[in-house]
Specification:
The chain is mostly helical. Helix content is about 55%, strand content about 5%. It has 21 helices and seven strands. The strands form three sheets. A three-stranded antiparallel sheet has the order 2-3-4. Strand 6 and strand 7 form a beta hairpin.
Length: about 375
């Protein structure tokens, strides 16, 4: 399903086939993709599911796991496509079919209400799981948190035991434009097939900070004061309490370090919050990130350093594709850009559609 987490897909498959053990569902899926059950249990299961759904592993990691969100920003040498062997810790965090016996997960009660009569079942949305996202962008209602959910649980099974987010936190998020941009930026970062580099984010954030809050005293750049002036309230206090600690008032914290740290990537929410506070529109922020990546070394460095090349919409982003995209940004038509690099126009069209898809979905959601 669109925006469905892989764990929910497995749950539905097990319930529809009346299976209740990992071994049984592995055997069923293995038979469908013509691999042995032992091999299915040993291999990263996300990759088995990708084969089952006729998707590339890269596309499956991007669309149906939280890997793109959790590793949305990485140091340049780690900017490999999501799910690559070269980023073993993050890869292993998303390839286990069943993981712990219970997890905390979020759901929208209105989505569940609509899913049942339309699909016959409800499913877990990837976009509801980002830290700091407390409302459903489609229904504009607060999300619920379900604890102790098993891998066979669907939202309809746990909704009555779920806990809604604090009303004050949700109301704050819905009315504050910065927090709404935060949600949009999280969704956009989580739809990318490979991370942006810390170098790119530092470049974008610093340039904007110099315009928004000039550093006349030449003091270390700190974005916390700006964020507090724009977002101070129940939501920020709930998700970023460290910004309020007395010893952090005058010291650099993780949010401030998004402006200076190239060697260490901090958690995605910090970058999303910084961008949402600095820019007046999500499109401007993400387009600057994309443009800076193409102008710099991100794409080409990823291709050089990774045996697992970035895959977007089934298109491997190699040197020729990156060059064609740069030609497009410079004003060339799809046909001319493709021909100049020896590509088929359909290849660039597939790439552009894959990149634009999250924005198009948001547009459709706003229309409905």
């Amino acid at each position: 399903m669109p925006d469905e987490l892989a764990r929910g897909y497995l749950a539905r498959a097990s319930l529809f086939n009346r299976l209740n053990t990992p071994e049984a569902i592995c055997a069923l899926v293995a038979s469908a993709v013509e691999v042995s059950s032992d091999a299915a249990m040993e291999r990263p299961f996300v990759e088995v599911l990708a084969k089952l759904t006729e998707m590339t592993p890269g596309a499956f990691y991007t669309e149906h796991t939280l890997a793109p969100f959790q590793r949305a920003v990485r140091p340049a040498h780690e900017c490999v496509a999501h799910g690559c062997d070269q980023d073993v810790p993050e890869r292993m965090a998303h390839v286990r079919a069943f993981g712990r016996s219970s997890v905390q997960i979020q759901l929208c009660p209105q989505c569940v209400k609509e899913d049942i009569p339309y699909w016959g079942f409800s499913y877990w949305r990837k976009s509801h799981q980002f830290r700091g996202v407390v409302f459903c962008s489609k229904h504009e209602v607060g999300l619920h948190v379900a604890n102790d959910t098993k891998w066979t649980s669907l939202p309809e099974h746990v909704i009555h035991q779920s806990t809604p987010f604090d009303e004050k936190v949700v109301a704050d998020a819905l009315r504050n434009p910065v927090i709404r941009r935060y949600e949009e930026i999280c969704a956009t970062l989580a739809s990318n097939a490979y991370p942006a580099s810390t170098k790119t984010l530092i470049h974008v954030i610093r340039q904007r900070m110099e315009r928004v809050c000039p550093n006349e005293r030449r003091e270390p750049l700190r974005i916390t004061p700006l964020v507090l002036s724009k977002v101070d309230g129940p939501w920020l206090q709930h998700f970023f309490p460290q910004l309020y600690r007395p010893n952090m008032v005058s010291r650099m914290n993780s949010l401030d370090r998004t402006v200076i740290s190239e060697d260490v990537a901090y958690a995605t929410p910090y970058y999303a919050l910084a961008l949402a506070s600095l820019f007046e529109s999500t499109d401007e922020a993400v387009s600057l990130i994309a443009h800076s990546s193409l102008d710099g070394v991100d794409v080409t460095e990823q291709v050089k350093k990774s045996n697992c090349q970035p895959d977007i919409g089934g298109v491997v982003v190699d040197h020729s594709v990156a060059a064609a995209v740069q030609d497009l940004i410079s004003g060339a038509s799809i046909v001319d850009a493709a021909q100049a690099q020896g590509l088929q126009p359909a290849t660039l069209e597939a790439l552009l559609l894959a990149v634009a898809q999250p924005h198009l979905k948001q547009l459709l959601a706003s229309v409905h």
